[in-house]
Specification:
Helix 3 runs parallel beside helix 4 and helix 8 runs parallel beside helix 10. The chain has ten helices and 13 strands. The protein is globular. Strands 2-10-9-8-5-3-4 form a seven-stranded mixed β-sheet. It has a two-stranded parallel ribbon with strand order 1-12. A hairpin with a 4-residue loop joins strand 6 and strand 7. The longest helix has 20 residues. Bound molecules: pyridoxal-5'-phosphate. Pyridoxal-5'-phosphate binds next to helix 3.
């Protein structure tokens, strides 16, 4: 039976990538050694790192004004590194509170300066992205931080705020799922395990001159400038994660790049939302204009039916559909690696389930 994994993260990787990684695991590029056994300063890994950076620049159209850094500690480490490096002395930063991850980022920033919540949907259980007219970015802010896709609440920005302050975005759960203009952002970061690679690493795309503002007394490993100057090789980087990331980028190129990926992601999410909106059985807790194309969350008439839904789906090879423990319900995470066929299989199952249990 074909299994489709709808887990929110670590999430499924493209089947092709998993098979390539499996083949190369014990013999990388004819060396007779696995990549994880080779020196990170040797020619084989150097090529892997170079190609990953080149392919990422090409796919996202990243200019030379930006550095690409691979930093361990996942997105959560960035919650602290951002204010540590980028909060101006006696300064403040603006945050939009659109979910659990935004709130965690804000909590870390409070350790380093004043945090101003300039928009929030917390009072309505994060059911929408606060509307643009609420933005009042102050040009004195150290930066403005947003979370472009809210993995748990199932909301996503479909337009970005313009800000005089440097705009920083946590794109952990929607990076490379659509075309964006990198120049609109001062920094983009993403934990790898949703749309890019295995867990444990963050991809950081940062405007080089922004990194220069960090205080001089930061530990070496917590300074962006270290990663920029040493090309993410100050210490031993997560070689396997970067290698798999490189395979994912080559897969994205074969798929036709981000514009093509965006079309497929649109088709997948539209199929699910159409079913939910035309059904008396399923219900979306999210405002239509704020709905995520990556994490489709929905409810059934009762928690008992939701538990049965998750169990029955699993028997049919549809795994990882249980909503986040903090909000309940159902969540279908449909990142880049989820093929349209997987979503169609889920739609068929949902129709059958509603007929049998409605
Ligand atoms: C998963 C996630 C994180 C946390 O990532 P870690 O790599 O586990 O630290 C942060 N932000 C968003 C939006 C996420 O989806």
């Amino acid at each position: 039976m074909e299994v489709y994994n709808f887990s929110a993260g670590p999430a499924m990787l493209p089947k092709e990538v998993m098979n390539q990684a499996k083949e190369h695991f014990t013999d990388f590029a004819g060396t007779g050694c696995g990549l994880v056994e080779l020196s990170h300063r040797g020619p084989e890994f150097s090529k892997v790192l170079d190609e990953a950076q080149t392919d990422l620049r090409e796919l996202m159209e990243i200019s030379d004004d930006y550095a690409i850094c691979f930093i361990q500690g996942g997105a959560s480490m960035q919650f602290a590194m951002i204010p540590m490096n980028l909060m101006l002395p006696d300064g403040f930063a603006e945050y939009a509170d659109t979910g659990t991850w935004s709130a965690k980022a804000m909590k870390e920033a409070e350790l380093f300066g004043d945090v101003r919540t300039i928009a929030s949907s917390k009072d309505s259980n994060y059911d929408k992205i606060p509307v643009i007219r609420h933005w009042s970015p102050d040009d004195k802010a150290s930066y403005l931080h947003i979370t472009t896709n809210n993995t748990i609440a199932g909301t996503q920005y479909h337009a970005f705020p313009t800000s005089k302050a440097p705009l920083i975005a946590d794109m952990s759960s929607d990076i490379m799922s659509r075309k964006i203009n990198v120049d609109d952002f001062a920094m983009i970061y993403a934990g790898a395990q949703k749309n890019l690679a295995p867990s444990g690493m963050a991809l950081v795309i940062i405007r080089k001159n922004l990194a220069e503002r960090a205080p001089k007394n930061l530990p070496t490993m917590l300074k962006y400038s270290t990663y920029i100057e040493k090309d993410s090789m100050f210490n031993t980087p997560p070689t396997f994660t970067i290698y798999v990331f490189g395979l994912v980028l080559k897969w994205l190129k074969r798929m036709g790049g981000l514009a093509e990926m965006e079309e497929i992601n649109d088709a997948k999410s539209e199929a699910l939302y159409e079913l939910i909106d035309t059904s008396d059985f399923y219900r979306s807790p999210v405002f239509p204009e704020s709905r995520s194309k990556m994490n489709v969350v929905f409810r059934l008439p009762s928690e008992e039916l939701e538990a049965k839904f998750v169990a029955d789906a699993k028997k049919k090879g549809l795994s990882g559909l249980k909503g986040h423990r903090s909000v309940g319900g159902i969540r279908a995470s449909i990142y880049n690696a989820m093929p349209l066929r997987g979503v169609e299989t889920l739609v068929d199952f949902m129709n059958d389930f509603a007929r049998e249990n409605g």
